[in-house]
Amino acid sequence: MEIQRKKLHAKIEKLTEQQNTQYETLLQQELQKSEFLQKEIQNMRNEQKNEWRSQNDFNKRLEEAIQKPKEKWGRLFSMFRK
Q1: How many CB atoms neighbour CB 9 within 10 A?
Q2: Structure letter (DSSP) for residue 1
Q3: Which chain positions lie within coiled-coil regions (predicted)?
Q4: What whole-number distance in Å separates Cα of residue 12 and Cα of residue 30?
Q5: Dihedral of alpha carbons 27, 29, 34, 35, sign
């Protein structure tokens, strides 16, 4: 009876140890996934900021290009008004 109890106790300890090892492994995997996803999100945010910056620069250049001809035409028409 004592031998069976010791064997059972040893099996329980072994299973507990295996579970702890599996848990630690899964925890490490989840931490790595989380870090990877955080980096991916940061990269996406950086790309989005660059897109916005490029779009804003383009919009400013476009607005300036549209304003320049108006200024030229305005000067031309002002010559005839005098």
Answers
A1: 10
A2: -
A3: 20-47
A4: 27
A5: positive
14 phi, psi to nearest 5 deg: -65, -45
Q: Which two tokens stand for residue 25?
A: 């492994």
Is it the case that residue 39 has pLDDT exceeding 90?
A: yes
The helix (run of H) or strand (run of E) holding residue 3 is helix 2-81
- pTM beyond 0.90, yes or no: no
> What residue type is 42 in one-letter code?
Q
Q: Which residues of 41-68 are buried (b: 16+ CB within 10 A; e: fewer)?
A: eeeeeeeeeeeeeeeeeeeeeeeeeeee
Name which of 26, 46, 44 is nearest 34 in CA terms: 26
The token pair at 33 is 């996934």
